[in-house]
Amino acid sequence: MRLPVEETRENLTAALAGRAPGRVLLRAPTGSGKSTRVPGMLVESGVSAGRVLVVQPRRIAARMLAEFVARSAGTKVGANVGYAVRFESRYSAATRIVYVTDGVLQRWMREDPGLSGVGAVIFDEFHERRLASEIALARVMDLQEATRPELKVVVMSATLEVAGLADYLAPCEVVETSGREHPVGIVHRRDPPPKRGRSGRVEPAPVWVRAVEACREEVTAMERDEKDGGGGTVPPRILIFMPGAFEIRKTQELLERASWRRGWEVKPLYSALAPQRQWEAVSESGGPRIIVSTNVAETSITIDGVRRVIDSGLARIACYDTRRGIDTLTIGKISRAAAEQRAGRAGRTGPGRCVRLWSEADHVRRAAFETPEVRRVDLAEAVLYLKAAGVEDPRWFRWLDAPDEQSLERAEKLLDFLGATDRQGALTDVGRRLARYPLHPRAARLLDAAQAEGCAAEGCFVAAVLQSEGVFARGATRSQRGEFQRDGDRSDFEADWRACEVAEGMRFDAGRCGVLGIQARRCRETLQVWRQLCGLAGRPEARPGHVDFEAHRERLARAMLAAFGDHVAQRVSEGSLTCRVVGGRRGKLDEASVARGGRLFAAAELTEVEGRELQAHLSHGVVVEEEWLRELFPEAWKSEAAVVFDEQARRVTARRRVLYHDLVLEEKDGGEVPEDTAAALLAERVLDGTLKLKKWDGRVERWLARVAFVAETTPELGLDPIGEEGKRILLERVCRGAKSYREIKEREVWPALREWLSAAQAGALEHHAPERIRLPNGVEAKVRYEAGAPPTIALRVQQLYGVEVTPRIAGRPVRVQVLAPNQRPWQVTQDLPSFWKNGYPQMKKDLAGRYPKHEWR
Q1: Which member of 291, 330, 655, 839 has the lowest number of beta carbons within 10 Å of its beta carbon?
Q2: Strand (E) or helix (H) holding 136
C-alpha cells in the first residue's frame, strides 16, 4: 500500500542531495507514513552515506517503530533496522536504520561528538517540543556546519505550529505532504453534575467512569450501524485516550466488568507495558477491540481500524517537581492542536467520530499548542550536558526558544551545590563524572557519592525508588508501612527495600501484595530500574542478596546528604512533626517516616504547598548527623550574634546562633541589647501590626491627617507629611529605653508627637488645621481630617441655620455632613447655598412631620 509520504520522495531526496548543508523540514500529518518510510527512502536513494538515526521522543515509539519497519521488510529487529532506548538496545554494526530516543542521541554525541558512521539524523514528532530533541538538533546543526557538511538533517512535524522553525533551520528546504484523512465528527460532552462520594464530599465523576459511559454509547451505535463495523480488513477499533497507566487500569477494570462489551477485546497501551502486550494492542489480528492508551497513540504510533476516539483531554505533562528536584509528569489539559491530532485517528480509513469529555467552552479556553519543555521543566540536566559538551555558558547556546533567566539561574545554583561546577560556573571533576549518567544531576550525585562510600547497590535502589511513584499503595496506612520498619532504621528506603523483597517473594501478586499495602507493579518496576542503575554504576552483578542496608546505614545517609543537603530539616520539638527547612521554609514530616526519631534529617522528597505561607511536606527522610554536615558542607556553616525580637516572649533579646545555610541549629540568649536597636525592633513590630499601642488611637491618626493637610495646602511652611518612615521614627522615640511589649503597651504617645513639631510649626498647625471652627451663627463645630479627603464637619440642620456660606479652612471649602434630627447624615455638600435652595426644602418636606418638636424654618 502506497503511503502519502511516498509522494515526497523525489523532492525530499533532491533537497538533501543539493547544496550543503542538507537540511529539510518535512511537514506531514499523522498517518502519512513519515516515521516508517522516510528513513528507508534515505537509505534506498543513497542520500545517506552512513547509518540513519531516527530520533523519537518516546521509548515505546522507538521500539515499536523499529519492530514494525523490520517486520515489514521481512527481517528481524536488530539486523537492518534496530533501536536504542534507555537501558535497552538492539542493533549491530551492520544496522542501517536505528530508532533512538533523544536522550540516547545526546549520550552518543557526548561519547562520539562527530557521530562517526552516521549519514543522516531524522528528528521525528518535533512538534512535541522536547527539550532533549531541541538540544540534540542544535548540536547536530553545529556539527554539520563545522566538520560534517555531508551529514543530512531532517526535521519532521505532524502539525504546523512550530513558529520560526524554518528560519531556525535556515538554510533549509520545506517539503510538505498531505495525509489520508476522512471527515471526523466532533462531539463535546459536558462534565456531569458532581455526586456525593463515600467520603461524604461532593466530587466529580472520575474521568474513567465518564470514558466508559461514552464508550458504551459508541459500541451500541457501531453495532447498530453495520457500516461502522466494517473498517476494511481490520476489525473495528475504539481508541480511548487516558493521561497515564493508573487511569488506563481503572478504565480497563470497568470495561472488563461491563456486560455490554461482549465480543470486544480490551487492551491497554502505555510505555511501561511489556513489548508483547504493546503489540497485542496495535496488531491487526483479533476481533473488535477497545484500546486504552496514553498520548503515545496520539502521533507516534498508527493503529489501523480506529473508527471512534474517546478523548479524556488530559495528558501527563513534563514539569519541574520541587519535591524531588527533578522533572516529573503531572496531569494537565492538552492543547487544541493535540486534541486535533487525537481526533484525526478516527479518520484514517473512513469517516469517524471523536467524543471529547470536555465542553466546547473549555476547548476554546485551552492553549492553541503545547508549551515547549524548555519553558516548563528543570534545566539542571540540560545545563550539565551542555557544559560537558563544551558550552561554557548556556546563554550562548543556539536555542530554538531561549529559556528564561530564572530557570537557568536555578539550574546553575543546583549544579554549584552538587559540586558539579565551581564558583565561576566551570565544570569540575565531579561534574564530569555526573555527566556520564543518563540521570538528573541530583540522582547522578547520589550514585557518585554512594560509590565513594562503598554502598553503590543501596544508592542505586534509592535512585530507583525516586524515579518511580513509590512502592507502597496510595492508601497504605501508617501501621502497614510500619510492618516493614525495624529498630535502628536510618532512612525510609530500608522499608521500601523490604517491601520490594516481599513483593518479589510473592511473585508480584497484586492481591497478596495489596493486603500488605504494597503496590506490586511499582515494586517490580522499581527493582527493574534498580538492576539497570546497578549496571551503570559498575555493579551489573548486583542481586538482592548483595544488598545490606543495615550494614551501610551511615554510608548511605552520607551519600544521600551529598545529593539532598539542601533539603535538610530540623523538627521544632520532639513531639511535633513540624519542621524548619533550609531555605527559610516551614514544613511537616510524613507521619510514617523513621526520620521522626532523629534531630536532623534530609528529605529526598519535598513537596511545596502554597497557602498563607509556603509550607513543605517532607517524605522519604534519612536521619543525618551534624558532624556530617560540617564535614561535607563546611562553607555552609556560620556563627552569628544578633539582636532579635522573640515572638513568644514578645521582647527583644541578644542571641547567639549557629546556622547551616539559613537553618538555625543552635541558639542561646544572653548579652547586652543596645537601646537604639531594641527601640527599632519594637517599633518595627508596632508598624507591621504585630504589637498594638493602646494610646496610638484615633486622635493620633487625626493629628497625622492634620499635618498632612497643612503640608498639602500650605507648602510654604515647610511642614512635611508623616509617612511610613516618619511613623517609624516616632515609634522609636516612643519605645526608647524599653525591651519588651509590656513596657510600651501603655506608653504615652503625645510627648513624641509634640517633639516632632517646632513651636512655630505647632502654632501653624493650630491656625491652618484647627480641631474646631466657629460658624457665623456662633455654633462651634469639630473638624474631622482624613487622608485623601477635605476637612469635614457634621451638624444637625438646625445647628446650621444662619450659615449661608460654606465654611473654609486654609482657603478650601469644608465638607459639611448635614444631619437629620436623629443624627443620621441626610446630605453631604461643599455648597451650602445650593443646599438651602434645593436640598433643604425637600428635607423639610420629608422630616418636619416626623420630628415636629424640632425647629423648621
Answers
A1: 330
A2: helix 131-146
